[in-house]
């Protein structure tokens, strides 16, 4: 590193003054002081221009600057430029190294990462795992739309619904045995990150679990039917001392049968990819829910049905009814006598059909709400068992709604009551034919 004078201006000016003094004295000795001084000035000017020219020609090329030699202002300017250029080069080298590390890391990731444009999802960059999992071609597929390369109705539905949650269990376009999960993450204001993960192993384990539950439930069904049958044949009048025992055995065997039936229903729902797409008459659903609520309540509650949505639904009548009646049954079971239960069918402000069951019952503490739809999750075990609950009702509701591209909205306040609302996508609604509905 060159040692720089601490005060280049001072140094330059003193050098110039010395030079001019020398020229003036030489001029005076040779006969003309002024000619000597003018020649000295002209030489100093020429020298400065020459330095300026050298500096400019170094800067105008994209060449690496030479380490400056000498003293003075020009050397100082050149030294600072040289230092700036060296720092910029070092920064560039560091960034290159960082970029290389990032690319190597991204390339060796087991998950496929795609940078796509906001809106059209045009592919801007992807790593090597995207070639392996999605069959993308590094040269040809940059700039193409993701939905043109991965054509699956589930992907389009997922994107249309906002892709807020990851899309699970999508078969890979190049190997149907490979199951993928897709997640769309906001990245910059005009780009999004699509992360594709191979979840084949997870799906396999999930399938093993489902098969196990389905098989166990199925195997339990026959012996339970036999036990139930024999219990029904036993007459308590013949053995009055067994009456209490028999009653308890019948209750427990009915409960177990109901658990097995609910587990089989859940297994069936889980195995299904999509719901049946029949028109579901919501008026007759409401009428039958009203009848069921009255029968279950047996006059203990005030039951109200309100309807302000003139739409029916696309879906499976049987499955939707099972979901709605689970909510109604819960409302009756968890609302003390004298309470109010409302079955309200309406369209929300986004035109989505919404069936809500609102009760004035005991309510659910907020900390239980995130887990309430898990299998066998109960807030109070005793109340659930006393009233014949299996702990699977809300799980069934959630699965039915998933199959119908709907979701369950739960609001509850302890001591005030609860609202369980099934909200469906607007596209699920069928506007009723006004003539037909008037005639009905
Ligand atoms: P269960 O058969 O036990 O009722 P569910 O899955 O239907 O099972 O419900 C899970 C738990 O959620 C219930 O055990 C109960 O604690 C709570 N729950 C469900 N619905 C209501 C309701 N309307 N009011 C208060 N608690 C409820």
Structural class: alpha+beta
Succession of helices and strands: HHHEEHHHEEEHHEHEEHEEHHEEEH
Number of helices: 13
Our measurement of the CA-to-CA distance between the termini, rounded to an integer number of angstroms, reads 97 Å
How is the biggest beta sheet arranged? Answer: 5 strands, antiparallel
Which overall shape is indicated by the principal axes computed on the Cα atoms?
A: elongated
Q: Estimate percent helicity.
A: 40-55%
The overall pLDDT, averaged over residues, is: 90
How is the largest sheet built, in terms of strand order?
2-1-5-4-3
Beta-strand percentage range: 15-25%
Question: Helices and strands in order, then pairings?
Answer:
Blueprint lengths: L7 H23 L2 H28 L11 H37 L3 E6 L5 E4 L1 H7 L11 H4 L3 H8 L6 E6 L2 E12 L4 E8 L1 H34 L9 H29 L6 E3 L1 H16 L4 E6 L3 E5 L1 H17 L6 E8 L5 E7 L21 H6 L6 H11 L2 E8 L3 E8 L4 E3 L2 H6 L1
Parallel strand pairs: 7-9
Antiparallel strand pairs: 1-2, 1-5, 3-4, 4-5, 6-8, 8-13, 9-10, 10-12, 11-12
Helix pairs in contact: 1-2, 7-8, 8-12, 9-10, 10-12
Adenosine-5'-diphosphate binds next to helix 10 and helix 12.
């Amino acid at each position: 590193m060159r040692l720089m004078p601490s005060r280049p201006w001072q140094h330059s000016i003193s050098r110039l003054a010395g030079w001019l003094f020398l020229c003036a004295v030489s001029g005076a000795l040779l006969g003309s002081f002024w000619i000597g001084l003018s020649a000295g000035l002209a030489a100093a000017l020429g020298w400065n221009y020459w330095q300026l020219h050298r500096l400019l020609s170094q800067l105008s090329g994209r060449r690496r600057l030479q380490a400056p030699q000498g003293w003075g202002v020009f050397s100082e300017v050149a030294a600072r430029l040289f230092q700036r250029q060296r720092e910029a080069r070092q920064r560039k080298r560091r960034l290159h190294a960082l970029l290389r590390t990032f690319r190597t890391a991204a390339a060796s990731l087991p998950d496929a990462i795609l940078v796509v444009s906001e809106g059209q999802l045009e592919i801007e960059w992807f790593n090597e795992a995207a070639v392996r999992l999605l069959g993308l071609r590094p040269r040809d597929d940059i700039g193409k739309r993701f939905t043109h390369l991965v054509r699956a109705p589930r992907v389009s539905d997922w994107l249309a619904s906002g892709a807020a949650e990851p899309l699970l269990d999508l078969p890979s376009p190049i190997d149907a045995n490979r199951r993928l999960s897709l997640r769309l993450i906001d990245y910059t204001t005009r780009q999004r990150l699509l992360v594709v993960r191979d979840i084949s192993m997870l799906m396999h384990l999930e399938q093993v679990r489902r098969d196990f539950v389905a098989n166990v439930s199925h195997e339990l069904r026959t012996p339970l039917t036999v036990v139930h049958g024999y219990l029904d044949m036993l007459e308590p009048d013949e053995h009055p001392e067994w009456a209490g025992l028999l009653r308890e055995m019948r209750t427990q065997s009915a409960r177990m049968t109901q658990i097995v039936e609910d587990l089989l229903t859940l297994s069936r729902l889980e195995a299904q990819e999509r719901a049946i797409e029949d028109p579901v008459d919501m008026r007759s659903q409401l009428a039958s829910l009203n009848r069921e609520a009255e029968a279950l309540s047996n006059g203990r509650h005030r039951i109200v049905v309100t309807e302000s949505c003139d739409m029916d639904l696309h879906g499976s009548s049987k499955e939707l009814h099972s979901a709605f009646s689970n909510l109604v049954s819960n409302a009756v079971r968890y609302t003390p006598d004298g309470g109010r239960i409302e079955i309200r069918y309406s369209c929300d402000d986004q035109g989505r059909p919404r069936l809500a069951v609102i009760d004035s019952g005991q309510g659910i503490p907020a900390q239980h709400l995130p887990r309430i739809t898990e299998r066998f999750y109960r807030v109070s075990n005793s109340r659930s068992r006393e009233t014949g609950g299996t702990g699977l009702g809300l799980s069934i509701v959630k699965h039915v709604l998933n199959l119908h591209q709907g979701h369950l909205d739960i609001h509850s306040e302890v001591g005030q009551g609860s609202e369980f609302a099934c909200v469906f996508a607007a596209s699920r609604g069928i506007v009723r034919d006004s003539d037909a509905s008037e005639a009905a």
